[in-house]
Specification:
By secondary structure, the chain is α/β, with parallel strands linked by helices. The strands form three sheets. Strands 2-3-1-4-5-6 form a six-stranded mixed β-sheet, with helices on both faces. It starts with a strand and ends with a helix.
Length: 464
């Protein structure tokens, strides 16, 4: 089993910097503005021989009931409850603050083991703060710098007693057998990367909570509650999924704040690294300009797309469906057959239908068509509608087609005159390819390449 470690403390003491340091990469957004982290964020990490699951949390701030800060604190409480050990950070430059003492009492009441880190200790000026920290009652403070990696050896020594027992022989055998799997089998055994994207306040975090059956993500009437891409390991009907909630994307011209720019970059990275992307729309404003921009970017990156029309329980259904279908036909022509599912995340309606659509489009995205039926289809297409004269007025001969790769499906067509093939004829082939082999809703890559002369090498050899 993996050691679970929660990183806690008041806002702006360096929790996300430590999270990124232990994870070995920049996952959490780090900004000078206090309170950037709102949801709890998890990642696998390793410190020498200790394997950990680390949890970044929101900084504690006292607040009234039903506020965003109160909901943030509830997420932090859950992280502490799940953890085997807590890393309590305070800012040694600022010295102890009232919130540090108040928070220390709450953490102590949890009964969890706590390691106290005096962060931002790059110089000797912080010695007074370190001595003062003993009054928190959390043990000896470790001088530390998350930004510069100072104190990691001391942290390792403190964490080692809590390290979980090593794997047994059966687990080791399972790992060896996994290494022997073929590439395709390996890919299928991995979790599906599923990202939930959309504009602010369309219900992305509510959908994520509904799927997980847990108040895992912060939600509320405030627009833009989620700031960072948050991934959670999950299973649906026995299939493993890495589910990623993202910050809402506004039009690029409206993003001025540096934190929002970082948030938007985090969302785009999560979407473009995913295999399937669920674009959540508000039923009152389906596929507006920003939605279409997101959809096109997902398709251009080669990801499979599913559209979820949320808040269906309060929608004008007939009018919404008509508007959605019109927009898909006129404004998203590069991909036909994108699956659309009407849902209510708040009332848990049609969530199974949504996940069925996700897996169906994922399987299409992984499709490999055998060579024989692919070339029979190709020959029939050319017989039924031969290629016209090319752009350079030369007769075009299309020789054969082959599938180069999957995820998404990519094909090469070999021709005597590839640069002359009109775009309209290529679209005709691609549309029929989708229809014949059930490839709706996913991007296709079709490249026309020049056929080599099989006799050129022989003629060259005989001429010597």
């Amino acid at each position: 089993m993996t050691l679970k470690v929660a990183i806690v403390g008041r806002p702006n003491v360096g929790k996300s910097t430590l999270f990124n340091r232990l994870a070995g990469r920049k996952i959490a957004i780090v900004h000078d503005k206090p309170g950037v982290t709102r949801d709890r964020k998890e990642a696998e990490a390793k410190l020498r021989d200790i394997n950990m699951k680390i949890i970044d949390t929101a900084g504690f701030e006292y607040s009234k009931e039903d506020s965003l800060e109160k909901r943030m604190w509830q997420q932090t409480e859950k992280a502490i409850k799940e953890a085997d050990v807590c890393l309590f950070l305070f800012d040694a430059r600022d010295g102890l603050q009232p919130y540090d003492e108040f928070f220390a009492n709450l953490v102590r009441q949890s009964g969890k083991p706590v390691i106290l880190l005096a962060n931002k200790c790059e110089g000797k000026l912080q010695e007074d703060s370190i001595h003062e920290a003993y009054k928190l009652g959390l043990g000896e403070p470790i001088p530390f710098s998350a930004e510069h990696g100072l104190g990691l050896l001391d942290l390792y020594d403190m964490l080692k007693p809590y390290d979980k027992k090593p794997k047994d022989i059966n687990e080791a055998e399972q790992e060896v057998s996994a290494e022997e799997l073929s590439e395709d089998e390996k890919f299928k055994s991995r979790p599906i990367q599923l990202a939930i994207v959309g504009r602010p306040n369309v219900g992305k975090s509510t959908l994520m909570n509904a799927l997980l059956k847990d108040e895992r993500m912060l939600t509320g009437p405030e627009a833009g509650v989620t700031r960072d891409a948050i991934s959670v390991d999950w299973e649906w009907k026995g299939r493993k999924i890495k589910l990623v909630d993202t910050a809402g994307l506004r039009r690029h011209s409206k993003i001025e704040d540096s934190l929002e720019k970082m948030s938007a970059a985090s969302t785009k990275h999560a979407a473009f690294m995913a295999q399937v992307v669920v674009l959540v729309l508000d039923a009152d404003a389906v596929l507006d300009k920003q939605d279409l921009t997101i959809a096109r970017q997902v398709i251009d990156e080669g990801r499979a797309l599913v559209i979820a029309v949320n808040k269906w329980d309060i929608a004008n259904r007939k009018e919404t469906l008509q508007k959605l279908n019109d927009k898909l036909q006129t404004s998203l022509t590069q991909v036909e057959g994108v699956p659309t599912v009407t849902i209510s995340a708040l009332k848990n309606e049609n969530l199974d239908k949504l996940m069925s659509a996700v897996f169906k489009v994922y399987d299409r995205w992984n499709t490999r068509i055998p060579t024989a039926p692919l070339n029979k289809w190709f020959a029939d297409m050319i017989d039924n509608y031969p290629p016209p004269l090319g752009k350079n007025k030369r007769r075009i001969k299309l020789r054969y087609i082959t599938q180069a790769k999957t995820r998404p499906p990519a094909f090469y067509i070999f021709s005597s005159n590839p640069e002359g093939l009109p775009d309209a004829y290529l679209r005709y082939l691609m549309n029929n390819l989708r229809e014949t082999f059930d490839l709706g809703g996913i991007p296709l890559r079709v490249t026309v390449r020049k056929t080599g002369n099989p006799y050129a090498e022989k003629d060259k050899h005989h001429s010597k």
